[in-house]
Specification:
Blueprint: H1 8-15, H2 36-57, H3 63-89, H4 99-126, E1 132-135, E2 142-145, H5 159-191
Antiparallel strand pairs: 1-2
Helix pairs in contact: 2-3, 2-5, 3-4, 4-5
Length: 192
């Protein structure tokens, strides 16, 4: 017959599952903003918000293509804001997970999604194909002038929509680069 445990609390603690301490290489609090990774996350939020605002202000003339751009920019904007908030408030230290791996995984997915969004936004802009709407002289009527359609996609954008989409394309590329740099730096932290 076995002897009963001398300390029942110690036996219960030994049987309980233990979780590893959270692993995070970035500083917590406002110190994270002094690192390159923190600055890149701020740029991701800033430029990602600009992509979102620019595409929305163009009134989404091609919803089939620009719907994905809006989804990616909104989702990445809110996830990056949440990630930065967790780091600044120090709550990341209370959540037991491998933050270095999550950082790499999130930025890898964001690079893939934002690159696709950049390509679709560039396709929307390039599909304008030289078409423009202009007014007829001495009339209130407008005329659509098409130089020549190229490719399978053809869009008719006003000059304002075209200009906004050019800016959105540029900022989508910049955000893709920011997420790519964050992914590379996160991968280096994760492999240490």
């Amino acid at each position: 017959m076995s002897e009963p445990a001398a300390n029942p609390a110690a036996a219960a603690a030994a049987a309980a599952t233990s979780f590893p301490a959270p692993t995070i290489s970035l500083p917590l609090g406002l110190e994270v903003l002094r690192t390159y990774s923190g600055a890149l996350v701020c740029l991701e939020i800033l430029f990602g918000g600009l992509v979102w605002i620019l595409v929305a202000s163009s009134k989404v003339p091609v919803p089939l293509l620009q719907g994905w751009v809006m989804f990616v920019s909104l989702t990445a904007f809110f996830l990056s804001t949440t990630y930065l908030t967790l780091l600044i408030t120090g709550l990341a230290d209370r959540i037991n997970t491998d933050w270095n791996f999550l950082d790499v995984f999130y930025h890898f997915i964001a690079v893939l999604f934002y690159f696709a969004a950049f390509v679709l936004e560039a396709a929307t802009t390039a599909a304008n194909g030289g078409a423009h709407i202009s007014s007829l002289p001495n009339s209130t009527d407008s005329v659509l002038c098409i130089t020549y359609p190229r490719g399978n996609i053809f869009t008719v954008l006003t000059y304002r929509q075209y200009s906004i989409n050019v800016a959105a394309t540029i900022f989508a590329f910049v955000v893709t680069l920011c997420y790519g740099c964050s992914m590379v730096m996160g991968f280096k932290r994760w492999r240490k």
